[in-house]
Amino acid sequence: EPRRHQVTELPPIEAHITEYRCQRVLCPECGKVTPAELPQEVRGHFGPELTALIAYLTVVCRMPRRVVGELLEQVLGIPLSLGSIQNSWEEASRAVAEPCAELERQLRNEPVLNSDETGYRTGGEKRWLWALVAPGFVFYQIALSRGAEVLVQLLGAVFAGVLCSDRCPTYLKYHPGQGQFCWAHFKRNILGVLEIAKTTEAERFCRDALALHARLFRLWHRFRAGPGARYGPLTRQQLILKSIPLEKKFFALADRYFDSGDRDVRNLARALFVHFEKFFTFLGKEGVEPTNNAAERALRCAVQWRKISFGSRSPEGEVAVARLLTATRTCRMQNRSSLGYLGSAIRSHRQAQSGPSLLKTDSTG
């Protein structure tokens, strides 16, 4: 058998330019010149694939527009002005407008949603970037506030599903129904109290809470790992039964420190006591996770974009950022090509058609 050695190289890259010649006819009677019209899909100066690439480089690869322009000129031999790059980016936003609106309408029908928000800037003014993650897609929205009115706008006055969050007062005000509070945030709070603990009572509460947390998550990992679990798999029913003693111990711990003299301990104990059911929804509800990591991961890429671009400069830019993040991150969740999807959406847009749906189906798998 010969030794195999492969070398990968790029072929010569050259832009493909198509020229359209529109005939003009002169009327012998009135002298008016009537030119032929271009087809709707070629009225722009850049093809759908190039336009999609510009949007992909800015949103997915998080490249500043000047760097995108340099890449196009140096690698592809296509010199473009910043204005042309911006126009292409905005066209990509318009192309995915209807698919994103379809996702927004679907939000209130989802059985489980993870939600989180982070700061944003538009023209130097404070905004909030929201991420709502469903099992098959993620939706972004840039809003003026982080208040409950944003959730009312997106999910309706009442959300019938399970809303997973990080105990922010916004979610408590909006959603009195079934929810799931993030155990990762709660553990972080416990570790913070333990780090600055000045009393034996605080140390005892934190160590007992962390020990119970570790036991609870060992059961969860056995359930999630299935047949490959180290100590054997658990069914949903077994998970619920084995968690009952731990739930009782958590409740007793919260009750014992409900009126603690340490303010930080008292706040944690009361949060656990008052919202006890929302800490354990994940045990019995299919599709609910004990942490809000899905929303945290969705926000991470948006935060990286924000740090590179320093936010937006106009309300139109806000909308474009939210739409393109929604489209590309949803494609990634569904194992679809973001670049391919953007190209298809732009071609449909130029033919005055709605872009391909972003709702997950068997064909988008």
Structural write-up:
The protein is an alpha/beta fold and 365 residues long. The chain is built from 14 helices and seven strands. It has helices at residues 48-59, 65-75, 82-95, 97-107, 148-155, 169-174, 183-195, 200-225, 236-256, 263-274, 276-279, 293-309, 315-333, 338-350; strands spanning 24-26, 33-35, 112-122, 125-133, 138-143, 162-165, 179-181. The strands form two sheets. The chain has a five-stranded mixed sheet with strand order 5-4-3-6-7. The protein has a two-stranded antiparallel ribbon with strand order 1-2. β1 (24-26) and β2 (33-35) form a beta hairpin. The relative contact order is 0.15. The mean pLDDT is 90.
How would you describe the oligomerization state of the chains in this entry?
A: single chain
**Rg measurement, Å:** 27 Å
How many distinct helices?
14
> Which bin fits the share of residues in helices?
40-55%
* Molecular shape: elongated
Low-confidence spans? none
How far is it from the N-terminal to the C-terminal residue, by CA? 40 Å
The overall pLDDT, averaged over residues, is: 90
Structural class: alpha/beta
Biggest sheet layout: 5 strands, mixed
β-sheet strand percentage:
5-15%
Order of helices and strands: EEHHHHEEEHEHEHHHHHHHH
Task: Record the strand order, biggest sheet.
Answer: 5-4-3-6-7
Number of strands: 7
